[in-house]
């Protein structure tokens, strides 16, 4: 049987069940994670006090769910990695490798911009395996498309694929940073990043 406490509402005692407390706790956790995701994307050094304020909870509540900054960072980063992997896995990469890469680049940019510096901020909270997975799984998709495009004569072959992957990553992150600096709009950035990458790869 669910436990019941009471809380004051005006002059009446209003029962608060254990189920209601759990629902409130879940909402608080989600609010904290969402707030941390937003703030860490632009400021990897944001304080827990700022995250609590953004989430609309007190610091005591935040620490009640996450006993340290490292714990919160790990949870937020793990969710960001899983979200990115789930989103990228839905993209149709069949057909023309040039068109498939263009589709992948646009979606990847949106994920990159959404999470920004979050994974960098959480780098000390994640295990080496988790950090490696965060980079390897997205890179594997791009590498496969580069190999297909190179074999079809659509992409340049006068340099190593590893360097092309590095250039692509730099362009995606650079476009995200340009948006934060106000140099381009969020609508223009993914198109600019896509077209710049394709141009760099064209023989």
Please give a structural write-up:
- Helix content is 69%, strand content 6%.
- Strand 1 and strand 2 form a beta hairpin.
- With 203 residues, the chain is mainly alpha-helical.
- The chain is elongated, with a radius of gyration of 22 Å.
- Strands 1-2 form a two-stranded antiparallel ribbon.
- It folds into two domains: 53 residues, Arc Repressor Mutant, subunit A; 128 residues, Tetracycline Repressor, domain 2 (Orthogonal Bundle).
- The N terminus is likely disordered.
- The longest helix is centred in the first third of the chain and has 25 residues.
- It has nine helices and two strands.
- Helix 4 packs antiparallel against helix 5, helix 5 crosses helix 9 and helix 8 packs antiparallel against helix 9.
Task: Offer a quick outline of the entry.
This protein is mainly α.
Helix segment count?
A: 9
Specify the oligomeric state: single chain
- Provide the low-confidence segments as ranges: 1-16
Level-1 CATH class name of the largest domain: Mainly Alpha
Approximately how much beta-strand content do the residues carry? 5-15%
Helix content: 55-70%
N- and C-termini, Cα separation: 70 Å
Name the shape in a single word.
elongated
What are the salient characteristics of this protein?
single chain, 203 residues, mainly alpha, Arc Repressor Mutant, subunit A, Tetracycline Repressor, domain 2, 2 domains, 2 strands, disordered N terminus
Secondary structure: elements and pairs:
Blueprint: E1 4-9, E2 12-17, H1 18-42, H2 48-55, H3 59-65, H4 69-88, H5 97-115, H6 118-121, H7 128-151, H8 161-180, H9 188-201
Antiparallel strand pairs: 1-2
């Amino acid at each position: 049987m669910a436990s019941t406490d009471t809380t004051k509402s005006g002059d009446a005692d209003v029962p608060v069940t254990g189920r209601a407390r759990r629902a409130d706790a879940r909402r608080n956790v989600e609010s904290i994670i969402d707030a941390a995701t937003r703030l860490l994307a632009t400021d990897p050094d944001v304080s827990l006090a700022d995250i609590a304020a953004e989430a609309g909870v007190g610091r005591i509540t935040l620490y009640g769910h996450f006993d340290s900054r490292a714990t919160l960072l790990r949870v937020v980063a793990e969710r960001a990695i899983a979200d990115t992997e789930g989103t990228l896995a839905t993209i149709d990469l069949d057909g023309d490798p040039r068109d498939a890469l263009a589709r992948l680049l646009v979606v990847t940019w949106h994920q990159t911009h959404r999470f920004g510096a979050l994974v960098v901020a959480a780098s000390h909270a994640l295990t080496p395996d988790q950090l490696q997975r965060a980079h390897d799984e997205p890179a594997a998709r791009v590498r496969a498309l580069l190999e297909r495009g190179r074999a079809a004569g659509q992409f340049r072959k006068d340099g190593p694929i590893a360097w092309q992957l590095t250039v692509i990553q730099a362009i995606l992150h650079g476009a995200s940073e340009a948006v934060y600096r106000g140099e381009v709009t969020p609508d223009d950035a993914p198109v600019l990043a896509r077209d710049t990458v394709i141009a760099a790869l064209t023989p």
